[in-house]
Amino acid sequence: MTGPRNAARIFVASLLLASAPVAAGAQASRTTPASTPPSPSPPPGTTATASAWKPQYTYLPDEEYWKPFCNPANRSEPADSLKCIALSGTDANSYATLGIDVREKYEHFFSKDWNPTNNGYLLQRYLVDADLHEDRLREFVELEYSTATNPHAPIDATWQDDFASTSAYVEYAIGSVTGAKDAPLELRVGRQRLAYGSERMIDDRSGLNTIQPFDGVRARINTGTWRTDLYYVRPVTVAPYGFDDLANKSASFFGGYATDSFKGGSLDAYAFVDQRASQFYYRGVGPEIRDTLGTRYATNSGPFDSDTELDWQFGSFKGDDIDAFAIETNVGYALARGRNRFRLGLGGGIASGDHNPKSSHFTTFRAPYPTGLTFGIIEANGNENTSGFTPNASYTYNKKVTVAVKDYFFYRQSIYDGIYSAPGYPLRAPAGSNASPIGNLGYASLVYVLDRHVQVIGAYARYLKGTFLEASPEAPGVPSLSTAYYSAWFEYKL
User: Fold this and answer.
1) Model pTM score
2) What CATH number was assigned to the domain covering residues 263-494?
3) Per-residue pLDDT tens digits for 94-141
């Protein structure tokens, strides 16, 4: 008779086989990332009580910890039994977890990318994952089905991905694992999602409808309050049809990201190299090797909070020397009374642009794999060649309902460079314009958290064109227009 351990193996193996075309192609060729201070680890074993440990979903599903649910006393609803399925009566480190993430989102753009358009569509995304732990060995698989109903536009890889594998890896733990959430050393190989820190530099783009995974290896070192990831990966090219996402052999990404989590904050330090056979800027197209050194310091102690990130980039583009920088900071002050909280904040930042396209000194900053929604809730300009400031405010009622408003004021850092999209593709050329103001993006959002499984969100945004957009239409005779946007979506997690 098939036991629970073999049944779990069969289930994970079936998901791995479903991902086989993707893995074979690779060989031929938001809620918390690692740097967010983690919740306190449960006591050893599976005897954690409900008061000592609270279940929570994280930005990356494979960062979640459900082991205490193997103790039925910790479960509060029938679905909790799926989060920790014991595979052995004697080995507490052998268990399986199943997860589901369903998102239904409608959004409507008026003049997207400042062009004369009027388009609304439904975005649907379904994720299912299986996580098998067998003492030191771990196997994790996540499958995605994403689609869009948009009769007025061609199929877009950020909208549609029919039956894709976003994760399919094997991980081996070295060192003590008895009762521990994290082993001293964890070695991983396969397809995986990456997201770190503010997600401004490295993210899996899950804010959009499809996810950006990576193929490669990762080593995680856990020492005290420090967590360090060392990785070598290739980005996966997302294609819209079933199991056709393959690793991009013309690009590689490797480096390290370390985080020290302490009471009231965290400190990040990172270094990585982004190599591409071809990259497009307004100064031209060519091969690029871009190195980044960066640090981030975030605190949330008492009524004050702050988040500051500094980056310096060097390397080469088409033989020209890269020397670019970026600075971003956000500060806030909050008043809390019971389960209600009001916060006022102010942010600002600068990312260098190209100051002389004819020189051999290239100063345009580019984040390698940023979040798809760099600013707010819509796809607009990225942070390349921008400077600006952002007043913001939010109010949370009864820890269930949050109303937030933000207002971004964007300027070109260099009038000799254009503006780029969040992934780094050119949006508007310099066009000989001396105008600096790009525009003003303001938005308001309403979030209702029903329980730990369900949230409902509504949002409205408008992007008022600045003098640079007015002077730089996408095509002759096509004027740049201000953008308006609204959306509503529902998300369920199990």
Assistant:
1) 0.87
2) 2.40.160.100
3) 899 999 999 999 999 999 889 888 889 999 999 999 999 988 899 999
